[in-house]
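May I ask for whichever protein you like with its backbone structure tokens?
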Amino acid sequence: MFYCLMEPRHCFELEGTLIMRINAASLLFVLVNLAACGGGGGGDLGSAASPVVAQTSRPVVSSSTPSQTSNSGSALPRAAAASVGIAQANVDAVLNHIFTDAATQTALVSKNGVVIGERYADGYDANSLGTSWSVAKSFYSAAIGVAIAEGHFSSVSEKASVVLDEFVGTDKEDITLEQILRMRSGLAANTNVFFSGDQTAHALANTLTRAPGIAFDYSNANSQLFEPLLRRATGLDAHNYLRQKILQPIGIDAINVGLWMDETGTQPMTYCCIDMRADDFLRFGLLYAQEGQWDGVQVIPQSYVAASLNPVGFYGYQWWAMNQTYFNRTVSGDIKSAIGLHGQRILISPRSDIVVVVLTKYRHFANQGYVLNTQQNYPDTCSARNNCRSQESAGPEVPSYDLHELVELIAALGEE
């Protein structure tokens, strides 16, 4: 069965199968198909991602004075919307719209690096972890940008075969980093990399189906190539490189992060699956909204951030453009988004320095660890979406909100 949480023309890769449903008596393993419209689908460090009791599901704001984004691992600053020139009613309208989706765990809204609106589903709070699914693609794209800045690659125009020896002497030899970043590598989509065991070997063996650079083909296996690219070029595995070059510089404490490995237990997954608190996903959005700077330090080159958010059609360097091409109708503002399966999103408006994070209710427990096992251990957001297809499921799949309307509401915040 094929699931899509975005408009049908943006569904590109079937990723599917086993998702776990947990009840008080037992673990029931059930077959399910997961389709990614920007979704992906394992880790080493992390704390418990099990739900904790929240105080309220209403918006939470404080009357504190806005401050600059902090590089510390403490919570991001909070303030009333009026303190940054935005009507609270308009922030509430964004949160209300997001929470028309009953599967939503968390929604945050920030302006100028300050959280001006937040809401949590019952049973969750600011310390609850969510999962990224394919939002992770945008993180590992950022790591590629840093690797270029550090001289591990000459530019986005460099051929991947410089470090991917498996491509040398094949029809894949001329694929460039930029073609991989823009999902225009020509490599096959719909390859079910999630269930392939050694996902890097799967990605390296993927076949060319069209000339590189010709057309957009959304492929998780394409983005799994970031794993060998980063490891071979930098000498660090992709997870450690991401921690050192992206997460730590923006104040994300590794103890609050789960980075998933494939079933080998040794290969980082680079198209999918970062578990973090909502505030930490927001930090990453702020990094891009502020042109790659954090506390005055250029973490990611400004030029790379600009290129990442400059789409060909509706896709940049592992970022989506919420534009007319994407929606096939007019749309306000200039909103970009990292998107993951089942409704994970980081939406940014760089022009207005507005960031919105949306996470779907997540079920995963610390003692399960972060090594993927497609029969026992994987990110569970399908329970909230009611599409695990277990015998326990009753009723229809939980629908999401209207994405176009959300983009319009966010664009309106930037006009105040």
Notes: The chain has one domain: 8-414. Residues 1-72 have pLDDT under 50 and may be disordered.
